[in-house]
Amino acid sequence: MSVERIQQHFRDSAATQLAAMETQAVPIAAAVDTMFAALANGNKILTCGNGGSAADAQHFAAELIGRFERDRPGLPALALTTDASVLTAVSNDYAYEQVFARQVRALGQPGDVLLAITTSGNSANVLAAIVEAHEREMIVIALTGKGGGLANETLADTDIHLCVPSERTARIQEVHLLTIHCLCDGIDAMLMGED
Predict the structure, then answer these.
(1) What residue numbers bound the domain in which 179 lies?
(2) Is the CB of residue 164 less than 8 Å from the CB of residue 147?
């Protein structure tokens, strides 16, 4: 592999992150406010996604339950991607499309937040979870890309849509990770003050 090709990945990533900074900073701040308000009111954050987005969902939950950069009490968050028995039972007994929605139905409460992650905005099981979250009177924060896909039609006016301005999955995932770190940092700053 050529050094130039590697350098181009870095340039493309930086350009996408800078473009996202311009369009996403305000909605990310709103997402932090929404998540903090839910946590301060005794609610929790559920999160889901497929593949790399599943890893991002787990990463986010781990940062809240454990810690981000500063010690603090654990915060209630649950990645709906981690219980193999639930994932396989729901997929087998119902359909893979219901794998997250069924968990939202069982675990979600009014005032909770669903962090729904789908790079395309078209993942059927994530969209079903969004619909179920609305039924449970939850607020949805969606991390997408590629113009938002079907999530544009599924999200409510009260939800927050963080859509990365890119068509490339790798670039979208890179910005999703940075966004997750912004969310974690913002929640910690609201809990403990800016450091």
Answers:
(1) 26-192
(2) no
